[in-house]
Amino acid sequence: MTNADPHELQKFSDLAHRWWDPNAEFKPLHELNPVRLDWIDGHAHLTGKRVLDIGCGGGILSESMAGLGASVKGIDLSREALGVADLHSLESGITVEYEEIAAEALAARDPASFDVVTCMEMLEHVPDPAQIVAACKTLVKPGGWVFFSTLNRNLKSYLFAVIGAEYIARMLPRGTHDYARFIRPSELAGFVRAAELTTVEIKGIVYHPLGKHFALSSDTSVNYMLACRREA
């Protein structure tokens, strides 16, 4: 069985045509992208690297990593989102290879094939996030980097990421997130250890409403990112 929730896939497929509109439902991803891109590149030095972007959606992060000189493959299970990603790649002239395939299936087919694997804002949308983490470990080469980002599970994250972002500020469509699927840093660290990856850094991401921008922080109580390595 595929490690995917049909309701979650349909939710993002229905919005796929608006993925690259910086003022539509995916505006937070556009605003967040420079922060996560700089952080990933600061660790992995993307130029010349072979990179896999799991749960790439419409390709915002995939294209930006390719723009830094990486050879990027993006995978997703939303055919509509991948169609948008392909079209935008043609329009922008930035080459990205896209494929509709599950991470676990690609891991079985092409193990140890990538210098860098990213899985951003995706773990909280699947039934078994530990299985995705294990697939990431299989996909990355020894010595390579794996990056995750997700949402912490606590009262503050519920108030900020669900009530605040979806119902008050309306930064995201209602129903974007299922609070029960949020993942505490300790839980993600456990998945990482079980997959025999080594955590290098954990960073929080905070939103500054007055300046309307995201920034790295030591505060991991809502959004956070984890940088890992597969030992050689």
UniProtKB/TrEMBL annotation:
S-adenosyl-L-methionine binds at residues 36, 55, 76, 120. It holds the Pfam family Methyltransf_23. Pathway: Cofactor biosynthesis; ubiquinone biosynthesis. InterPro entries: SAM-dependent_MTases_sf, UbiG_MeTrfase. The keyword S-adenosyl-L-methionine applies. NCBIfam families: UbiG. This is Ubiquinone biosynthesis O-methyltransferase. It comes from Paraburkholderia rhizosphaerae.
